[in-house]
Amino acid sequence: MGEQPVSTAAGAPASGRVAVVGSANLDVVVDVPRHPRGGETILGGDLRRSPGGKGANQAVAAARAGGADTVLVGALGPDDGAEVLLRSLTGAGVRTDGVRRVAAATGTALITVSPDGENAIVVAPGANARVVVDEPARELVAAADVVLAQLEVPLDVVVAAARARRPGVPFVLNAAPSRELPAPVWQDVDVLVVNEHEAADLAGPDGATQPERAPSELARLLLARVPAVVVTLGGDGALVARRGHDDVRVPGVRVDVVDTTGAGDTFCGVLAAELARGADLAEAARVATVAGALAVTRHGAQDAVPGRAEVLTRRSRVPG
């Protein structure tokens, strides 16, 4: 199904329906004067606990900033971290009937944030390793207009999610955190979303051995495997590359950076939501870039996701 055009299924509702299959983590965050080197101990600020995980973050973004009818397929443990996540998801309007409770600790992300807003993250997967696409989950995925997944859950779950969608429904893969992808994953991807480092990793020897390659060159290498690629460029925006089309460079939105933790996930969730309502991939990336920029102006991952009205107001002020 990876060769199908990027379009929405016929009869999609105005809000669009997004199924996110992925992780949910409790983020444990500390501000640091700088990220520690190996073997070094440094003193940080106060500890913060907040809802996170790529899957949950992207679901919140699709619902809150993207305005889509969104369901999360994931797994949580029998602990207080799960309750924090469920409150955040339901508060954002995300349906949680696809979230299983399992006998493993809720996933946890240990995050340090430096004064310039850059973060370093270590994830203990916990319950995320037990996500499954069973029959109830397949029904939820099959009802969606776009299916979105990431790589914080087992790869067989990613493949199962892609194959549970209806014919013609785009499968969007945010290939993060970076890892090698087997053929069954590549063949089902319609839109690959990666940052520059992930693009270089996935582009093979030509990309990995020449990290100075331009994003457009990396995207062209990846288009040999998938029909469409979006390379996120941080504060410089994004690049949209599609087979048979000229590349589109989406400019960044200038903001005061506070914390970059959830910016990429906000981008992905809003991109999926825009595609679900029938937007062209380039326009979806423009709206997603605005949403991602707004997310870095506040602390946290899900807590930082902007509302739909704020995104649309800021988008109206951006040329293009």
Topology of this structure?
Elements: E1 17-21, E2 25-31, E3 47-52, H1 54-65, E4 69-76, H2 80-91, E5 95-101, E6 107-113, E7 119-124, H3 135-142, E8 146-149, H4 155-163, E9 171-174, H5 183-186, E10 191-195, H6 196-202, H7 205-208, H8 215-222, E11 228-232, E12 238-242, E13 248-250, H9 263-276, H10 281-295, H11 308-315
Parallel strand pairs: 1-4, 1-8, 2-6, 4-5, 8-9, 9-10, 10-11
Antiparallel strand pairs: 2-3, 6-7, 11-12, 12-13
Structure description:
The chain is an alpha/beta fold. Helix content is 32%, strand content 22%. It is built from eleven helices and 13 strands. A nine-stranded mixed beta sheet has the order 5-4-1-8-9-10-11-12-13, with helices on both faces. A four-stranded mixed beta sheet has the order 3-2-6-7. Strand 4, helix 2 and strand 5 form a beta-alpha-beta unit. It is globular.
In short:
This protein is an alpha/beta fold and 320 residues long.
List keywords for this structure.
320 residues; 9-stranded mixed beta sheet; 11 helices; 32% helix; globular; disordered N terminus
- Which residue ranges are poorly predicted, with pLDDT under 50 across at least 5 consecutive positions? 1-12
Sequence of secondary-structure elements = EEEHEHEEEHEHEHEHHHEEEHHH
Q: For the record, give the distance between the C-alpha atoms at the N and C termini, rounded to a whole number.
A: 31 Å
Oligomer: single chain
Q: What is the CA-based Rg, rounded? A: 18 Å
Structural class given helices, strands, pairing?
alpha/beta
What's the tally of helices? 11
Determine the mean pLDDT: 92
**How many E strands?**
13
Main sheet?
Answer: 9 strands, mixed
The best one-word shape is globular
Helix content: 25-40%
Strand order of the largest sheet: 5-4-1-8-9-10-11-12-13
Query: What percentage of the residues does DSSP assign to strands (E)?
Result: 15-25%
